[in-house]
Amino acid sequence: MIETPRIKVCGLTRAQDAHDCARLGVDAIGLVFYPDSPRHVTLEQARAVVAALPPFVSVVALFVDPAPAQVEAVLAAVPVDMLQFHGDESPDFCRAFQRPYLKAVRVRPGLDLLDYAGRHAGARGLLCDAFVPGQAGGTGATFDWRLLPPALPLPLILSGGLDPENVTDAIRRVRPAAVDVSSGVETAKGIKDAAKIAAFISGVHDASV
Ligand SMILES: O=C(O)c1ccccc1N[C@@H]1O[C@H](COP(=O)(O)O)[C@@H](O)[C@H]1O
């Protein structure tokens, strides 16, 4: 019996998409505070997205090697539940904000994921994404799931190129605690599609039957 993983949809920019995510049963949404991303949101946009959510849908704020002041500015302006560090942030840096956080890692051959997870033991989960040279994330690329060790000391959040077509197979193979999707439920970067989100959620539930 496969336990149904939690579902995070990342890279929202519009209140309407937040409303759809909540209506369809998404557990968490992600806001990208990385200026180089096409899904980057201003503080004002972020507040509008969060305001469209009912209680009990978590808000994750995503950063890539931010300055501490950038994180503090978001925390002061937007009600977020969790931070996501998607760059080369050190464990000390991630812990400094005294908030629950996810540590993302871009999986590639030769990377010792057990060692990486051990160093980031303070994280609430290890988010495993694809490695695409020159790009920090949100690429729509998958990675070789066989590179993941059979057990990790942190909850595994599977990400990287997931979509309604491959998510059932991904869950059956990897058995993650949660899945995270961005490109696979979009019509354009930062523009989510309710039908694709519904199909993605249906694919997640199909893994358990
Ligand atoms: O979404 C982005 O633009 C982004 C930019 C920089 C770092 C991470 C980003 N998104 C994260 O990447 C994963 C995988 O995205 P995709 O599904 O392959 O498009 C996504 O879930 C976000 O957590």
From TrEMBL:
Originating organism: Microvirgula aerodenitrificans
Entry EC no(s): 5.3.1.24
Reaction catalysed by this enzyme: N-(5-phospho-beta-D-ribosyl)anthranilate = 1-(2-carboxyphenylamino)-1-deoxy-D-ribulose 5-phosphate
Keyword entries, A-Z: Amino-acid biosynthesis, Aromatic amino acid biosynthesis, Isomerase, Tryptophan biosynthesis
A Pfam family assignment: PRAI
Domain of life: Bacteria
Gene3D superfamilies: Aldolase class I
A GO biological-process term: L-tryptophan biosynthetic process
Identification of the protein by name: N-(5'-phosphoribosyl)anthranilate isomerase
Phylogenetic classification of the source organism: Bacteria, Pseudomonadati, Pseudomonadota, Betaproteobacteria, Neisseriales
Family label: Belongs to the TrpF family.
Domain N-(5'phosphoribosyl) anthranilate isomerase (PRAI): 8-201
GO molecular function, one term: phosphoribosylanthranilate isomerase activity
PANTHER family (UniProt xref): N-(5'-PHOSPHORIBOSYL)ANTHRANILATE ISOMERASE
Transmembrane residue ranges: none
UniProt xrefs under InterPro entries: Aldolase_TIM (IPR013785), PRAI_dom (IPR001240), RibuloseP-bd_barrel (IPR011060), TrpF_fam (IPR044643)
Pathways per UniProt: Amino-acid biosynthesis; L-tryptophan biosynthesis; L-tryptophan from chorismate: step 3/5
